[in-house]
């Protein structure tokens, strides 16, 4: 078994599930204002915020490790360590917000990831204190120990993204399976008014669910799997969110602007893939834009 394959075993273990539930509720209670959660998810950005923020501590601490090896550069290393510590706090908050809205396998590994990062952060804070007290040797020992643990924890975070698709757009994955042909969604009059309907497009040998909304003569069609965790958008609702008509996911309440698919409310941070529409003899035709023109 590969080293990171062991993490899949960990993700299957229910050993710490009793701690995960209360931790999840505590995070959700602490981040209760929806606007704060959306800020931390990256909903406003149309991209998960956590992987962007973590670049700062990872880059700063790695660079500090190199500069610490050069005696005259050690003051610069201390500045970099302080920068990493300062940004690690909002990065951790962003990660916690995402973690609290993920499936159980991701939450299990996420607990390990968070524990590693907390230890690493503590070591770096200890390193700053030691350096401030003139104990540079101890400060370097603590920061190198922090770098080792932070690197291991980053590998776990990478596994959560690459192997467990945490933060990935599940809609984009479904969209890649869709063929480039125009899809016949049936007569306009068969679509219900103001609520999503299920239609399907061809994706090789499988059907790709689509969520189709009719507002008068206007039709909006989206990949049916929610970008957050593949929730069935065709079983959702149409609601006004922040002044715009949105398609709302029935699983965790993410809202996507019907006009452009951008997330207007999280936990989704990725947009929902939208199909282009044309009418043909009273029938609604759709396909993903940019395909096989
Ligand atoms: S699957 Fe989570 S909001 Fe849609």
TrEMBL record:
<dbReference type="InterPro" id="IPR019251">
    <property type="entry name" value="DUF2231_TM"/>
</dbReference>
<keyword id="KW-0411">Iron-sulfur</keyword>
<keyword id="KW-0479">Metal-binding</keyword>
<dbReference type="Pfam" id="PF00355">
    <property type="entry name" value="Rieske"/>
</dbReference>
<protein>
    <submittedName>
        <fullName>Rieske (2Fe-2S) iron-sulphur domain protein</fullName>
    </submittedName>
</protein>
<dbReference type="InterPro" id="IPR017941">
    <property type="entry name" value="Rieske_2Fe-2S"/>
</dbReference>
<dbReference type="GO" id="GO:0016705">
    <property type="term" value="F:oxidoreductase activity, acting on paired donors, with incorporation or reduction of molecular oxygen"/>
</dbReference>
<comment type="similarity">
    <text>Belongs to the bacterial ring-hydroxylating dioxygenase ferredoxin component family.</text>
</comment>
<keyword id="KW-0001">2Fe-2S</keyword>
<dbReference type="GO" id="GO:0004497">
    <property type="term" value="F:monooxygenase activity"/>
</dbReference>
<keyword id="KW-0408">Iron</keyword>
<dbReference type="Pfam" id="PF09990">
    <property type="entry name" value="DUF2231"/>
</dbReference>
<feature type="domain" description="Rieske">
    <location>
        <begin position="183"/>
        <end position="286"/>
    </location>
</feature>
<dbReference type="GO" id="GO:0051537">
    <property type="term" value="F:2 iron, 2 sulfur cluster binding"/>
</dbReference>
<dbReference type="InterPro" id="IPR036922">
    <property type="entry name" value="Rieske_2Fe-2S_sf"/>
</dbReference>
<dbReference type="GO" id="GO:0046872">
    <property type="term" value="F:metal ion binding"/>
</dbReference>
């Amino acid at each position: 078994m590969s080293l990171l394959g062991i993490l899949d075993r960990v993700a299957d273990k229910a050993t710490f599930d009793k701690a995960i539930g209360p931790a999840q509720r505590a995070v959700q209670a602490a981040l209760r204002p929806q606007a704060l959660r959306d800020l931390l998810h990256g909903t406003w950005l149309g991209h998960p915020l956590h992987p962007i923020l973590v670049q700062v501590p990872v880059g700063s601490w790695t660079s500090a490790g190199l500069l610490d090896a050069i005696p005259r550069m050690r003051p610069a290393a201390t500045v970099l360590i302080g920068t990493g510590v300062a940004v690690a706090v909002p990065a951790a908050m962003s990660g916690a917000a995402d973690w609290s809205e993920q499936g159980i396998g991701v939450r299990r590994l996420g607990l390990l990831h968070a524990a590693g990062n907390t230890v690493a952060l503590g070591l770096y804070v200890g390193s700053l204190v030691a350096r401030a007290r003139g104990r540079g040797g101890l400060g370097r020992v603590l920061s190198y120990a922090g770098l080792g643990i932070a690197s291991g924890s980053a590998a776990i975070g990478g596994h959560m993204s690459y192997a467990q698709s945490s933060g990935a757009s599940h809609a984009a994955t479904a969209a890649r399976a869709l063929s480039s042909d125009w899809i016949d969604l049936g007569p306009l009059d068969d679509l219900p008014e103001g609520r999503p309907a299920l239609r399907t497009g061809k994706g090789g040998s499988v059907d790709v669910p689509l969520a189709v909304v009719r507002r008068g003569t206007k039709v909006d069609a989206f990949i049916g799997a929610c970008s957050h965790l593949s929730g069935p958008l065709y079983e959702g609702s149409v609601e006004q969110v922040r002044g715009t008509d949105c398609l709302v996911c029935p699983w965790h309440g993410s809202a996507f602007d019907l006009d452009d698919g951008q997330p207007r409310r999280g936990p989704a941070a990725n947009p929902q893939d939208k199909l282009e529409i044309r009418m043909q003899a009273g029938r609604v035709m759709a396909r993903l834009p940019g395909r096989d023109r």
